[in-house]
Design brief:
The protein has 21 helices and 15 strands. By secondary structure, it is of the alpha/beta class. Strands 3-4-5-6-7-8-9-10 form an eight-stranded parallel β-barrel, surrounded by eight helices. Strands 12-11-13-14-15 form a five-stranded parallel β-sheet, sandwiched between helices.
Length: 603
C-alpha cells in the first residue's frame, strides 16, 4: 500500500534488506531468555494474540501480507468509505440517544454539538403521543431524527411524519430514519413482527421522502448477546438481505431498496478490530449489492454506537476512556453517525454532565484532533488491511451459515443463532474470569472504597429474546455480595496479606494479591498481625527464593494464629501446608466466589 513519492526517494534505501528469518531469530533469542525455547515461525507465533472467530494478530506485518485492493473512497467496494469526501466536510453525525420525554435535555444536546437525535419510542421509551412535545423547538429541517420503536414502529413513524407536516417541514427537507426493524425487535424480545408495515413505510419514503430511510439493520442485539465481530457482521448481512427480499417483493428495485437501509454496529475499546469491522461491513454489503445487480447502491450507511457490553457499573468514570477509544475507532473506521453512550449508561438515566461528556467526546475528536480531516486514516496499514480481509471472510462465512439454515428469521426462531452467540460468550467469559481480558476498575485496580454513583432508574429495556450481557457481570455479582455483607455487619470480608522479606521481594505479589481479592469485594489487610486483622484466611506474598526458605514456617505460624486457609501468591509448587495458589491466569472468579462462600458471605 506504500506509494513512493514522485522523485523516487525511498527512505529505507540506505538500509540493507533484512530477511524475515533474521527477525525471527532475534525474537527466538529474546524468548529464550524468558524460558521459551522456540525457533523460526514458532517464535513469531509465540508473540501472536488470539482473537475471536479464529483470527490471530501477529507481531509483525509486512508488504508480503497481501489483502484485496480496497479501492477508493466513494467507489465500490467502499472499504475506504461510502462517500468520496468521507467525513471531511463537517465530521461525522453526532447522534445522541434519548429514552425519556425530556425536551430540555433534547434541546440542550442540540444547542451544544449534537447534530441528530436517536429516540427510543414505545416500550422502554418515549410514548408515541409525546413525540411532538419532545421535538417542540427542534428545527426538524436541520436535525435528523432516528426512531427506535420496536413493535410501535408504524404508529411512531406515522406520528413523526404528522409532526413534520404540522411544523411545515417539506417532504424534501425531512431527514433521518423511521427505524423499522422487525427482525431486530424479534431478536430483542422473541416477539414476531409483521414486516408489511415496514415495507409500506419504505415504499412511502422511496416515493415521497428522499431524505428519510425506513428501516434499520441493527446488529447491536447480537453484539449485546455476546457475539463476536464476525457474528455481528454475518447477522447484519442476513438481516439486510432479508429486508431486500421483502422490499423487492413489494415492487422496489434494488437501488431503491438499498437506499432504505441504515446499518447499526457497536464500537468497542479494541480500536483496530472496530476499524476493521466497519471497513469489512462496507465491503461485504457492497458484495451483496453487486450480486443483486446494483453495485453502485452498495455504499452502506453506518450508525455506530459505543458498546454497552464494555460499560461498567463500578468505577464508571473509566467508561469515558473506553468510549473515547471506541469513538476514535468509529471515526477512523468511516462511520457516518456515532452515538457515544454516557459513562453512566449502565447505572440508569444519564445526568447532564454525562450527556455533556458524551457529546463532547465526538466534538473534541472532530474539532480539536481533526480526526475527520483524513479519509480512512488506517487505510494502507498492512495490519489493518489484512485484519479487514480476514474479518470480512469470517463474517461472510457466518452469513452463509445463516442463509443455509433458512435466513435470519429461521436462525433466530430455531435457537441455533442464540446458541452460537452463547458459545462465543461462554468462551469470552472464561477469559474474563481468568483476567486474560482485564477490566480496569473492576477486575484490575478496583477501588473498594469508591463512592457509588447513583442515577435515576432508566426505563426497562426491551427483553424476552436474546440476552444482554456485560463484561463486568461476574465481578459485579461478587461485589454485590460484599456490599450486602458490609450493610449487614458494618465491615467487608477481609483477608490478611503476609509479606515475607524486604519490599523488593514481596511488593509485586502483594500488589497482585491485593488487586485480585479486591476484585471480589474482599478487603486486604497488610498491617499488624493476623490476629489483629479480623481475617480468617491469609495469603503469603514474596519471591520464589524466599518461599523456598520461609514459606513452610510462615504457613505453620499463620495456621497456629487461626488462619483456616492459606494461599500462596505464585505458581503452584511444593510448599507444605499451602492450601491453594493464586497466580496470573488463575480463575479469579472461581477463587473469589469460593472464598466468599467460606467466609459466610451470602450470594
Amino acid at each position: 500500500m506504500t506509494v513512493l513519492p514522485d522523485d523516487g526517494l525511498e527512505l529505507a534505501g540506505e538500509f540493507p534488506d533484512v530477511p524475515h528469518e533474521q527477525w525471527q531469530r532475534l525474537v527466538a533469542g529474546v524468548l529464550r531468555k524468558s524460558g521459551k525455547d522456540v525457533e523460526g515461525a514458532a517464535a513469531e507465533e509465540a508473540l501472536s494474540t488470539a482473537l475471536e472467530d479464529g483470527l490471530r494478530t501477529r507481531p509483525l506485518y509486512t508488504a508480503h501480507d497481501s489483502a484485496p485492493e480496497p479501492g477508493l473512497p466513494g467507489f465500490a467496494p467502499f472499504v475506504r468509505g461510502g462517500r468520496a469526501e468521507g467525513n471531511t466536510v463537517g465530521g461525522w453525525d453526532v447522534r445522541q440517544r434519548h429514552t425519556v420525554a425530556d425536551r430540555d435535555a433534547v434541546l440542550g444536546d442540540l444547542e451544544n454539538g449534537v447534530t441528530s437525535l436517536w429516540l427510543t419510542v414505545g416500550d422502554g421509551g418515549i410514548a408515541v403521543p409525546d413525540l411532538g412535545r419532545v421535538l417542540d423547538g427542534v428545527y426538524l429541517d436541520l436535525a435528523p431524527v432516528v426512531l427506535d420503536a420496536g413493535r410501535d414502529a408504524d404508529p411512531a413513524a406515522r406520528e413523526l411524519l404528522r409532526v413534520y407536516e404540522e411544523r411545515g417541514v417539506s417532504r424534501d427537507a425531512a431527514r433521518g430514519n423511521l427505524g423499522a426493524d422487525p427482525l431486530g425487535h424479534e431478536a430483542r424480545t422473541g416477539e414476531r413482527c409483521d414486516t408489511a408495515p415496514a415495507v409500506e413505510l419504505a415504499r412511502l419514503c422511496a416515493g415521497e421522502y428522499p431524505g428519510l430511510r425506513a428501516l434499520t439493520v441493527d446488529a447491536l442485539p447480537y453484539h449485546e448477546a455476546g457475539g463476536s465481530a464476525a457474528q455481528e457482521l454475518g447477522c447484519s448481512l442476513a438481516t439486510g438481505v432479508a429486508y431486500l427480499r421483502e422490499l423487492a417483493g413489494a415492487g422496489l428495485d434494488v437501488d431503491q431498496a438499498c437506499a432504505q437501509l441504515e446499518f447499526r454496529y457497536a464500537a468497542t475499546a479494541d480500536q483496530f478490530l472496530t476499524i476493521a469491522k466497519l471497513r469489512a461491513a462496507r465491503r461485504l454489503w457492497a458484495r451483496v449489492a453487486e450480486v443483486c445487480g446494483a453495485p453502485r447502491a452498495g455504499a452502506q450507511l453506518q450508525h455506530v454506537v459505543t458498546s454497552p457490553v464494555m460499560m461498567t457499573r463500578r468505577d464508571p468514570w473509566v467508561n469515558m476512556l473506553r468510549s473515547t477509544i471506541a469513538t476514535l475507532a468509529a471515526g477512523a473506521g468511516g462511520a457516518d453517525a456515532v452515538t457515544v453512550l454516557p459513562f453512566d449508561h449502565a447505572l440508569g438515566l444519564p445526568d447532564a454532565f454525562a450527556r455533556r461528556i458524551a457529546r463532547n467526546t465526538s466534538t473534541i475528536l472532530i474539532e480539536e484532533s481533526h480526526l475527520a480531516r483524513v479519509i480512512d486514516p488506517a487505510g494502507g496499514s498492512w495490519y489493518v488491511e489484512r485484519l479487514t480481509d480476514e474479518l470480512a471472510r469470517a463474517g461472510w462465512e457466518f452469513f452463509q451459515w445463516i442463509e443455509r439454515v433458512g435466513g435470519q428469521a429461521a436462525a433466530l426462531r430455531s435457537g441455533h443463532l442464540g446458541q452460537d452467540l452463547a458459545n462465543t460468550w461462554e468462551a469470552r467469559t472464561g477469559k474474563l474470569a481468568k483476567r486474560r481480558e482485564p477490566i480496569t476498575g473492576v477486575s484490575e485496580f478496583p477501588h473498594l472504597n469508591e463512592k457509588p454513583v447513583v442515577r435515576e432508574p432508566a426505563p426497562a429495556p426491551r427483553s424476552g429474546g436474546l440476552p444482554r450481557v456485560r463484561r463486568d457481570e461476574a465481578y459485579e455479582a461478587l461485589r454485590a455480595r460484599s456490599d450486602a455483607h458490609l450493610a449487614a455487619t458494618g465491615s467487608r470480608p477481609r483477608i490478611f496479606l503476609a509479606a515475607l522479606g524486604p519490599a523488593a521481594a514481596h511488593t509485586a505479589r502483594l500488589t497482585f494479591a491485593s488487586n485480585l481479592f479486591q476484585a471480589g469485594g474482599i478487603e486486604p489487610v497488610t498491617d499488624g498481625t493476623f490476629e489483629e486483622s479480623g481475617a480468617t484466611e491469609a495469603v503469603l506474598c514474596s519471591s520464589d527464593a524466599l518461599y523456598a526458605e520461609q514459606a513452610e514456617a510462615a504457613v505453620r505460624e499463620l495456621k497456629a494464629a487461626g488462619a483456616r486457609r492459606v494461599f500462596l501468591a505464585g505458581r503452584p509448587g511444593e510448599y507444605p501446608g499451602v492450601d491453594a495458589y493464586v497466580f496470573a491466569g488463575c480463575d479469579a472468579v472461581a477463587v473469589l466466589s469460593a472464598t466468599l462462600d467460606r467466609m459466610g458471605v451470602v450470594s
